[in-house]
Design brief:
This protein is mainly α. The chain folds into two domains: 31 residues; 122 residues, Cytochrome Bc1 Complex, Chain D, domain 2. Helices cover 46% and strands 4% of the residues. It has six helices and two strands, in the order H-E-H-H-H-H-E-H. It has a two-stranded antiparallel ribbon. Helix 2 packs across helix 5 and helix 3 crosses helix 5. The chain is elongated and about 95 Å long. It starts with a helix and ends in a 6-residue tail after the last helix. Bound molecules: heme C.
Length: 166
């Protein structure tokens, strides 16, 4: 092989490798960056610990999913279709939560379609400090705004079949 031919081959090989590499390594231009888990808590470690202990005593996880407190996921026996509590503090205010936990009949505030045994129990019998603790902790469970908007959009479009315009 002459010197010139060798040079051409090398150039071709480099071009092929570069082309393949480009194809596999390049990220499509419109790909969304990975935004990660959208849930977070603004609770102090102390609040998280106290509320976490109380919620464990009261077995909220028998029915609800949430990541907070112990970093765990959900009770393994969970089979009640209760709403997840992650991000609840971006949807409900602390005052709303306090009133909900204080209600003798929570279903008067939030109607239920479930059988009685699966419905949200009344926590009116807890002392005031405990109800405030729960409300304050749950109000600290936030969800990133972009995720909330995406969820709203999806729900809206699923329910109405129309395009969502905020
Ligand atoms: C027996 C199952 C059960 C247990 C135990 C339970 N919940 Fe619920 N919870 C529900 C259900 C179901 C709902 C939805 C409303 C309904 O169907 O009554 C609900 C609703 C809620 C809501 C309102 C959610 C929203 O969409 O605004 C909050 C907040 C909540 N629960 C917090 C708690 C906390 C905190 C505990 C523990 C102290 C707890 N729950 C224990 C079943 C339960």
């Amino acid at each position: 092989m002459r010197k010139g031919e060798k040079g051409i081959l090398v150039v071709m090989a480099v071009a092929v490798i570069a082309g393949v590499a480009y194809k596999f390594l390049s990220v499509p231009k419109n790909a969304e960056p990975d935004k990660g888990i959208p849930y977070y808590s603004v609770a102090s470690p102390e609040l998280e610990k106290k509320a976490g202990t109380l919620m464990r005593e009261l077995n909220c996880r028998d029915c609800h999913k949430y990541y907070g407190a112990f970093g765990g996921i959900t009770s393994l026996v969970q089979n009640v279709p209760a709403p997840p509590l992650d991000g609840i503090g971006s949807i409900r205010s602390e005052q709303w939560l306090y009133e909900y936990f204080s209600a003798e009949n929570p279903q008067a505030i939030l109607p239920s379609r479930l059988k009685q045994e699966f419905q949200m129990p009344s926590y009116a019998k807890l002392n005031e400090q405990e109800r405030r603790l729960l409300a304050s902790y749950l109000a600290s469970l936030k969800v990133e705004d972009w995720y909330l908007q995406e969820t709203k959009k999806m729900e809206f479009e699923k329910l109405t079949g129309k395009t969502y315009e905020p």
